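Quiz preparation item.
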């Protein structure tokens, strides 16, 4: 909710991040379709062992950061909705692994549909929030597409912007998307046709995510910023919504938080399996045990943080910034691989895609370096 501090000024960051996310996920799909290998496998095969191990470590850190954010989101939602103590709520989040395993018995499409259902729930929740908040639509439209210099004025604004970038592009999704698309190669469709439908799926899913992420910021700006309220905690946001917009708004907010956490932690667990199997060159027969092990490893920091009473919103934003810091280690190899004609064949990036991809990678690197400079200078 710290995003409410800057009103609508960071909306353009949501739009830029969503555009980069679409491009990178399309590239991840192209890699899987053209080579039959996912991003983790390609990194292991194409880089020296020492480099591959380093990239594996960065990917694992990104997974831990992702799970840290999602665990805290689910735990806070359970706490707000049902009064479950935060420490117990964090431990309960392990059960979404069981949900994945049960659904996969009926085919991976059921997992995808379940995640889609959660995303739709989040979207509907924020549609309700927006209708109740009644934001200034002219300001929303302007700031959604017109950049401003807010992130250059302070470390805090840049920190929040990097959190938005990390939470939108999400490096673990690049690994997962490059692996998921391989399941479609068993069909008689041509690679070009599979890529076409993958692009449609990606644009549709991330277009919806752009609306949801934008709605979160718009709701915070319209309700908190315009009422001159500085809300710095999620439970504070929940309690503040009730007197401002009514109990229905507060309940909707908590439900959206729960759905968001479950859907994201589900994809995070699936991505963890892809990263482990791809980098370590293993095929685990007992995937239930692997996923449970990954979940327990990645949830450890969240459990420790809760027991140490670290502020949840601090953990959420910090975890998203860690994702942003890891992005170059996923994005740059992805752009390199998909621009190699010897590797990609007819699906090699055309010049304009290559240009957009390298510009996007440069923006990510530049913003990360700028954040480090700001932090060092104490701006």
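Solution:
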């Amino acid at each position: 909710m710290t995003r409410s501090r800057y009103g609508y000024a960071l909306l353009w960051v949501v739009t830029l991040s969503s555009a980069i996310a679409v491009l990178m996920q399309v590239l991840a799909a192209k890699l899987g379709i053209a080579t039959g290998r996912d991003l983790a496998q390609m990194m292991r095969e194409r880089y020296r062992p020492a480099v591959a191990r380093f990239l594996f470590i960065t990917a694992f850190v990104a997974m831990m950061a992702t799970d840290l954010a999602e665990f805290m989101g689910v735990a806070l939602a359970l706490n707000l909705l049902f009064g479950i103590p935060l420490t117990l709520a964090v431990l309960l989040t392990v059960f979404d692994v069981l949900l994945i395993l049960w659904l996969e018995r009926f085919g991976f499409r059921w997992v995808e549909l379940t995640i889609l259902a959660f995303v739709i729930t989040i979207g509907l929740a924020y549609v309700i929030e927006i209708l109740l908040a009644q934001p200034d639509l002219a300001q929303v439209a302007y700031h959604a597409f017109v950049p401003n210099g807010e992130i250059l004025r302070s470390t805090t604004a840049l920190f929040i912007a990097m959190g938005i970038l990390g939470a939108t592009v999400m490096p673990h999704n690049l690994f997962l998307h490059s692996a998921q698309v391989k399941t479609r190669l068993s069909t008689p469709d041509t690679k070009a046709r599979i890529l076409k439908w993958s692009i449609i799926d990606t644009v549709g899913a991330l277009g919806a995510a752009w609306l949801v992420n934008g709605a979160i910021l718009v709701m915070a700006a319209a309700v908190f910023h315009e009422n001159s309220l500085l809300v710095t905690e999620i439970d504070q946001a929940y309690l503040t919504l009730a007197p401002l917009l009514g109990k229905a708004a507060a309940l909707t907010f908590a439900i959206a938080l729960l759905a968001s956490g479950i859907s994201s932690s589900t994809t995070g667990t699936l991505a963890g399996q892809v990263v482990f199997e791809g980098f370590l060159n293993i095929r685990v027969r007992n995937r239930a045990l692997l996923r449970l092990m990954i979940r327990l490893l990645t949830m450890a920091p969240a459990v420790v943080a809760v027991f140490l009473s670290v502020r949840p919103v601090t953990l959420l934003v910090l975890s998203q910034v860690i994702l942003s810091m890891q992005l170059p280690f996923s994005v740059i190899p992805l752009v390199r691989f998909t621009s190699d004609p010897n590797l990609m064949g007819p699906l090699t990036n055309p010049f304009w895609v290559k240009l957009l991809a390298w510009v996007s990678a440069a923006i990510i690197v530049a913003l990360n370096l700028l954040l480090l400079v700001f932090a060092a200078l104490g701006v």
